[in-house]
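Tokens as discussed.
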């Protein structure tokens, strides 16, 4: 996995087989040091999550880039407790936009911080698996890791 951070928090996570070319590190030494601290915190959180250690350490600030709607959806996803799931439609209802299931699905798919913003916990109607930007194999594994089940 690869984490990206700025001096105000984590911005992106990607799986190593999905890596894009890296961009050069920019900023003052203080900004770079802060970003490195967030990277260390994020890596510690991920290690604990994947090892099954509870409680999880404090998550560093998350600063994903997206539209206001994307960010509203991601905030709702962050409220989904470990070991539970919800649906695209339920998130749309939480946002008082009951007809926006597809838009919610697109925002979920645009999540730049999978696992940290646990979009794997969002299922399609009827508890069906739905999609996952990092691949369904990973979504199945993450759900199983949390002891969750889903409909085929």
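Sequence:
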């Amino acid at each position: 996995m690869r984490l990206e951070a700025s001096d105000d928090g984590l911005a992106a996570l990607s799986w190593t087989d999905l890596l894009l070319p890296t961009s050069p590190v920019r900023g003052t030494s203080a900004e770079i040091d802060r970003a490195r601290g967030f990277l260390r915190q994020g890596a510690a959180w991920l290690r604990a999550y994947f090892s099954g250690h509870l409680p999880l350490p404090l998550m560093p600030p998350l600063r994903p880039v997206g539209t206001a709607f994307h960010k509203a959806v991601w905030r709702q996803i962050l409220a989904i407790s470990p070991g539970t799931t919800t649906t695209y439609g339920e998130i749309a209802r939480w946002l008082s936009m009951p007809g926006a299931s597809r838009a919610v699905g697109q925002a979920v798919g645009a999540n730049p911080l999978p696992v940290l913003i646990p979009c794997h916990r969002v299922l399609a109607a009827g508890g069906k698996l739905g999609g996952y930007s990092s691949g369904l194999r990973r979504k199945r594994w993450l759900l199983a890791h949390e002891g969750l089940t889903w409909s085929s």
